Amino acid sequence: MEIVAINQISPDQVIFFAWKFVTINATLLYTWLIMGVLVVGSVLITRNLSTERTMSRWQNLMEVIVTGIRGEIREMVKDGVDTYFPFIGTIFLFILLSNLLTFIPGYVAPTSSLTTTSALAILVFFAVPIYGISKQGIIEYLKEYIRPNPIFFPFHVMGELSRTLALAVRLFGNLMSHEKVIAILLAVTPLFFPIVMQALGLLIGLIQAYIFAVLAMVYIASATQTHEEGEHPPKTPS
To answer: Is the dihedral of CA 211, 216, 219, 222 positive or negative?
Structure first.
């Protein structure tokens, strides 16, 4: 059962607790729930790691996920995979878990709120210059904004802002529209179509988490390239 009514566009509008200036809505509650699950899950899975062939199913699952993320990062950068893995991996796991838990009745993905997707996009917005400056130095990094001519400086800035907005709106739009379609089908055909759409939603959630993480890594890889390397852009995964 959806807790966000059709006429409500965001879980921000679902208030669980309010007292003076303190307000706990569905977005805040489920965001902390996801973070708690990730922290507790990480502790439980990593406390008895095994290097033998026989290992727990959870460790096996996490190794598959970690290997996959590292492989995607390695496709875009020549070295320093371990430098980018914590940031990209955390974003991917947060979005993935947020989206996959939508099969639980009463749960609403925090990623269907523009507040959450904007926060994730802002993290990428600040991560790009941080990684770029740490790799190239501040002078070389800022030079990229005036190449090939200083007149292009405002266009480079507009590009940075527009892609951040696109990151937030793309994820929000896909997740929000999916939940609204589910709510409409639940009202029209209460059995068959909602089940099919929920199954399709799990696939959409996985794809959206992958797209967000890959785009974030592409932006970071572009910022960490030197000018000479920029003539040979990083390989974008198909």
So the answer is: negative
- Cβ of 10: how many Cβ atoms within 10 Å? 19
On the question of pLDDT at 89 being above 90, the answer is yes
Spatial separation of the C-alpha atoms in residues 116 and 114, rounded to whole Å = 5
Rounded distance, CA 233 to CA 236, Å?
9
- Cβ–Cβ under 8 Å, residues 142 and 190: no
| Chain centroid offset of residue 60 CA | 23
User: Tens of pLDDT along 202-234?
Assistant: 888 889 999 999 999 999 998 887 655 555 555
Instruction: Give the span between the Cα atoms of 223 and 144, in whole angstroms.
Output: 9
Asked whether the predicted pLDDT for residue 237 surpasses 50, the reply is no
Q: Which two tokens stand for residue 212?
A: 């967000």
Query: pTM for this one?
Result: 0.84
Q: 172-187 in b/e burial notation, b at 16+ Cβ within 10 A?
A: bebbbebbbebbebbe
